[in-house]
Every structure is written in C-alpha cells, then in structure tokens.
C-alpha cells in the first residue's frame, strides 16, 4: 500500500461528551474544517488524541468513522502506542481491517526498551501489516531515541517509510537526509520548529495547533513549498505564541481550549486530565485572545 508522506497531517484531538463518551459529531466538525483548509492527511489517537485513555473499541470507532467521512480524499493514519509487541501487532491488523491507510508507531510504552529491543519491536509490527509506517521519534517525551543506526536496521522493512521527527534538533533533518535520502521521509513533529524543519528538507508537518487553526497551518506549508518564505515567516511569527502551547505537559488542554475559541471543539478531556484552571487557564486564554486580535489575513494559498 502506498502513502504520500507530505504536507500537513493534523494530530487530531479526540472529542468527548460531558458523559465521557466519544463525541463523534463534534469530532467530524473538526475533521471537516481540516479538509476545508486543505490538509494532506489525518492522524488519529496520538498524544493529542489522548491515546493512553482510549479503549480499543473507541480507537476503532474513530478510525472507521473518519475513513467513511473522508472517502479517500486524504489518508487516515492511526497511532499505535502499546505496552507489548503482541498488542501492537493486533492494533496494526485492526487498523488495516478498519480501513486506515497508514500507521504512526511509537516505541513500547512503560518499559524503556534498549536499541535492540526497540528495533525488534518495530520490525515485528512492520512484518505483520501491509500498511505504511511512520516511526514516531520523540526521545524527550517517550525516553527512547531511534538513532540513525537503528533506522539503518529498520529500513530493511519496505513499509517503514517515514519518521515523525520530534527530537527538537533541526539538524537531525539534515542528518537523516544525508544518510537516507528519499528512502526515509521526514515529517516534522514539533510545532515551534516546523517552518525551519520544512525549509531544511522535511516533507511534511504532523501538526498540533492545526486542530484550532487549520488554514494558517496549511498556508505556512504551502507558501514555503513554493519559495514564498517571507510570507510563510510572517504567518509563523504570528503563530509562534500559540505553537508554544504544544510543547507543554498540558498540550491537550491547551489546544482544546484554543479549539473552543475557534469553534472547532470543546474543553472536555478524559480523566485524570482536567480542563485548565486558575492562573494557568488565564495565561493560556491571554495567548489565544491576543493572537485572535491580530490574526493575519491569509493570501490565497491553495493550488500554488
């Protein structure tokens, strides 16, 4: 199965009702806004999607509902974040059954596997699905780094095709390109350095604040792609205070609050998470409201 690793792919938040069930209707409102803005794919059940709190049944509902809604207009990826190799393989096979077109694959959860164990885990999943795979490399949050040497071993698996590069080291984009060329596509995974990473050769952006600001995110990608860097920088500089809400332990609550302000979501999170409160909430609201006051008028960015 082929998947074009490029463009903006939102790491979607999962919407919940006040009764702590999936709010599929509100989720679809956000998905439609992403499609209208021109995103190039959708990633379900990631960190922003509160993956660790979702049941297997809920993940399958999100996948099947999204696949049915987009009707093949963009690829739908589901995140796999499991404790055991067996569970990860099962999740990959279920995703394939449910119509997903790709996987985002995290290292084993809870157990801090060594390099050999991590490679074996990824290979085992890859060999049990035909779906294209993007390895999520985020040593800051998940404490396991997938090194260039590990990727060398992993790329014997033809369906391991991309990396969500979240080491927060822009030079790693160049290292990957120098080592692997086009064999390993780079999708930048850190909002605050996304533009720099794209300019240095990343093919796409697994984005967070796109959940609340889809048009601005896609505009930045499309403008830089055709060399209109100054225009992209102008939007990105406006965007940065908002993007910094993504590199925070409460990124889920932050971004869901931003979604409320742009009418694309609610603040409902799943316990043990709770909505923002007190001074913390006030500070985030200040960032959002200030950004909305000076929200830039976007140039025509589609079909450039």
Task: Explain what this protein looks like in three dimensions.
It comes from Lacinutrix neustonica. With 304 residues, the protein is an alpha/beta fold. It has one domain: Aldolase class I (TIM Barrel). The chain contains 12 helices and 8 strands. An 8-stranded parallel β-sheet has the order 1-8-7-6-5-4-3-2. Strand 2, helix 2 and strand 3 form a beta-alpha-beta unit. Helix 1 crosses helix 2 (56-70) and helix 4 packs parallel to helix 6. The two termini are 28 Å apart. The mean pLDDT is 97.
State the main characteristics.
304 residues; alpha/beta; TIM Barrel; 12% strand; Dihydrodipicolinate synthase family protein; Aldolase_TIM
Summarize the structure.
Helix content is 44%, strand content 12%. It is α/β, with parallel strands linked by helices.
Topology of this structure?
Elements: E1 7-10, H1 24-37, E2 42-44, H2 56-70, E3 76-80, H3 85-97, E4 102-105, H4 115-126, E5 133-137, H5 139-142, H6 148-154, E6 160-165, H7 171-180, E7 185-188, H8 194-199, E8 204-207, H9 214-225, H10 229-243, H11 251-261, H12 278-293
Parallel strand pairs: 1-8, 2-3, 3-4, 4-5, 5-6, 6-7, 7-8
In DSSP terms (H or I, runs of 4 or more residues), the helix count works out at 12
Indicate the CATH topology: TIM Barrel
- In angstroms, what is the radius of gyration? 18 Å
So, the CATH homologous superfamily?
Answer: Aldolase class I
The 3D shape can be described as globular
Distance between the termini: 28 Å
Please give the domain count.
1
């Amino acid at each position: 199965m082929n998947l074009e690793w490029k463009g903006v792919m939102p790491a979607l938040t999962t919407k919940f009702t006040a009764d702590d069930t999936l709010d599929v209707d509100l989720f679809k409102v956000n998905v439609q806004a992403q499609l209208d803005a021109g995103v190039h794919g959708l990633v379900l059940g990631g960190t922003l999607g509160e993956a660790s709190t979702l049941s297997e049944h809920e993940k399958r509902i999100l996948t099947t509902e999204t696949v049915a809604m987009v009707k093949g207009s963009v690829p739908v990826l589901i995140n796999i974040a499991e404790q055991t190799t067996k569970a990860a393989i099962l999740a990959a096979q279920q995703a394939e059954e449910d119509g997903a077109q790709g996987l985002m694959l995290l290292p084993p959860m809870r157990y801090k596997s060594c390099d050999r164990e991590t490679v074996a885990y990824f290979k085992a999943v890859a060999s049990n699905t035909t779906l294209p795979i993007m390895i999520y490399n985020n040593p800051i949050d998940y404490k396991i780094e997938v090194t260039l040497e590990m990727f060398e071993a992993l790329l014997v698996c033809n369906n391991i095709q991309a990396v969500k590069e979240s080491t927060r080291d822009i030079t790693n984009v160049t290292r990957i390109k120098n080592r692997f060329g086009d064999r390993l596509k780079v999708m930048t995974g850190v909002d605050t350095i996304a533009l720099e990473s794209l300019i240095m050769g990343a093919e796409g952006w697994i984005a967070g604040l796109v959940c609340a600001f889809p048009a601005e995110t896609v505009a930045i990608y499309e403008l830089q792609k055709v060399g209109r860097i100054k225009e992209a920088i102008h939007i990105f500089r406006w965007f940065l205070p908002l993007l910094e809400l993504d590199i925070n332990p409460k990124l889920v609550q932050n971004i869901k609050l931003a979604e409320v302000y742009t009418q694309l979501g609610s603040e409902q999170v799943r316990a043990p998470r709770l909505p923002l409160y007190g001074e913390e909430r006030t500070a985030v609201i200040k960032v959002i409201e200030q950004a909305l006051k000076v929200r830039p008028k976007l140039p025509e960015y589609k079909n450039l």
